[in-house]
């Protein structure tokens, strides 16, 4: 099967240029710069004139809820939402039921996802207070790394013992396996919650979430993780950095990097008035000052990658305040489009967007032959275009939960086509339900 993708503006490795891409089966065979498309006999031709052609987005941080929580979401529905949004690869998190903290649970995820995922996939292995000895048995070519919850989030995967943290950081360093951390100080959060309940009642209003899951709780935990990584020489990636102070921890050590997620780049605490608990997430959405600092971090190198922390819940579970409403939001379908909003505002360039969402996730986790538009690389591509404003409505949302904090938002960009492993899985509103992704390979 050969496909010619021609006429588009290719955005790749710091450049934007007019050109054509020839796809043979699942890989890129040729990239030709210039107006003239390469001659040949092709099974399919796709005209990208007036559009931008990017590498497929790699979302390194998603919760697809399968197994055990499939009333909220599942691998099929969320990978379909990913394809609609130009995301061709994802790394899924371990706090499912059962948790991905045993070799058996990890293998089960690979087996079920092979049958169900429309795009490419892999899984973080979850750390606990007891399971560091299992790290030696992990296949480093199949997983991106270890996920470590240093703050209570969902499930009971909190690792808070000093001896366990030291063992996890030292073992991961010896194996050269990256650790991705969720950094919030649980003791501080619990103390803040107790004070909030005393003052505001059993379910404090959602506006208090930023003070309960506070700047100090984030900073102190991140500082601890960075300190351990420096001691043991561990490759550390801090997930969903949400505060200005945390950014002080990054930039001096290449093996210690930071991720920002769409929620903290797009929303701030002023949005609680309109969105309420729909934007409740852990860590919390914080001040406009923090949001703007994170945006600046996209440019100055403090932030290395951008992901979603895609975390669907039933809409009924998002009702209430700081105690009752679930934390997390579904964003994988709209992550690229939302970052394109920032491009339109002049916050960053299209080339920088591609670095943060494609090149850097690939480099950070040593993904094999994905994340770049290069000959012999997997033909994971997304074609996007500017368009007249269109509004997000429920019928557009592909996630199983059927809501998004972007409901009602008007975008001026759209995803035209998504190619995954050379296969055109999404084409201007038409989706190939039979499409299947591939297991991602590392190192």
Find the structural class using helix and strand composition.
alpha/beta
* Percentage beta strand: 15-25%
Rough shape?
Answer: globular
Number of helices: 11
Which ranges are low-confidence, i.e. pLDDT below 50, for 5 or more consecutive residues?
none
**What string, H for helix and E for strand, traces the elements in order?**
EEEEEEHEHEEEHEHHHEEHHHEHHEEEE
Got a strand count? 18
The radius of gyration is 21 Å
Mean pLDDT: 97
Distance between the termini: 28 Å
What does this structure look like?
Strands 1, 2, 3, 4, 5, 15, 16, 17 and 18 form a nine-stranded mixed sheet that branches. Strands 9-10-11-12-13-14 form a six-stranded parallel sheet. The protein has a three-stranded parallel sheet with strand order 6-7-8. The two termini are 28 Å apart. It has 443 residues and is an alpha/beta fold. It is globular. The protein contains eleven helices and 18 strands.
Topology:
Layout lengths: L1 E11 L2 E10 L2 E7 L10 E4 L4 E4 L1 E6 L12 H10 L2 E6 L10 H14 L3 E4 L1 E2 L19 E4 L12 H14 L3 E4 L3 H15 L8 H4 L2 H18 L3 E3 L17 E6 H5 L5 H4 L12 H13 L4 E3 L27 H10 L5 H15 L16 E11 L18 E11 L2 E5 L2 E2 L12
Parallel strand pairs: 1-4, 1-5, 6-7, 7-8, 9-10, 10-11, 11-12, 12-13, 13-14
Antiparallel strand pairs: 1-2, 2-3, 5-15, 15-16, 16-17, 17-18
């Amino acid at each position: 099967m050969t496909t010619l993708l021609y006429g588009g503006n290719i955005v790749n490795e710091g450049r934007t240029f007019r050109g054509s891409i020839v796809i043979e089966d699942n890989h890129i065979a040729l990239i030709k710069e210039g107006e003239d498309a390469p001659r040949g006999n092709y099974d399919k031709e796709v005209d990208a004139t007036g559009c931008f052609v990017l590498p497929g987005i790699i979302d390194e941080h998603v919760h697809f809820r399968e197994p055990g929580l499939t009333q909220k979401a599942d691998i099929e529905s969320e990978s379909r939402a990913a394809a609609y949004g130009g995301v061709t690869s994802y790394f899924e998190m371990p706090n499912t039921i059962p948790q991905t903290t045993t070799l058996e649970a990890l293998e089960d995820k690979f087996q079920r996802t092979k049958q169900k995922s429309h795009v490419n996939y892999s899984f973080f292995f979850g750390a606990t207070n007891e399971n560091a000895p299992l790290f030696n048995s992990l296949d480093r070519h199949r997983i991106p790394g270890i996920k470590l919850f240093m703050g209570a989030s969902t499930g009971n995967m909190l690792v808070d013992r000093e001896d366990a943290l030291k063992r996890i950081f030292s073992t991961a360093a010896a194996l050269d396996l990256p650790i991705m951390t969720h950094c919030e100080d649980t003791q501080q959060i619990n103390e803040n919650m107790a004070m909030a309940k005393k003052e505001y009642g059993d379910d404090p209003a959602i506006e208090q979430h930023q003070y309960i899951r506070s700047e100090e709780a984030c900073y102190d935990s991140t500082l601890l993780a960075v300190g351990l990584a420096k001691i043991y020489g561990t490759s550390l990636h801090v997930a969903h950095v949400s505060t200005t102070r945390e950014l002080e921890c990054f930039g001096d050590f290449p093996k210690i990097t930071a991720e920002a997620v769409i929620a903290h780049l797009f929303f701030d605490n002023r949005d609680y008035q309109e969105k309420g608990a729909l934007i409740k997430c852990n860590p919390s959405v914080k001040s406009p000052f923090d949001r703007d600092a994170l945006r600046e971090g996209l440019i100055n190198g403090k932030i290395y990658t951008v992901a979603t922390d895609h975390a669907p819940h039933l809409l009924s579970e998002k009702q209430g305040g700081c105690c009752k409403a679930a934390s997390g939001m579904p964003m994988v379908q709209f992550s690229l489009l939302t970052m394109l909003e920032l491009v339109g505002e002049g916050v960053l360039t299209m080339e920088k967007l591609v670095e943060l969402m494609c090149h850097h996730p690939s480099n950070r986790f040593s993904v094999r032959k994905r994340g770049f538009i290069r000959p012999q690389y997997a033909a994971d591509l997304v074609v996007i275009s500017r368009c007249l404003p269109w509004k997000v409505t429920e019928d557009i949302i592909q996630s199983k939960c059927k809501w998004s904090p972007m409901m009602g938002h008007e975008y001026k960009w759209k995803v035209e086509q998504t190619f995954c492993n050379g296969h055109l899985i999404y084409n201007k509103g038409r989706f190939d339900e039979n499409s299947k992704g591939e297991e991602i390979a590392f190192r």
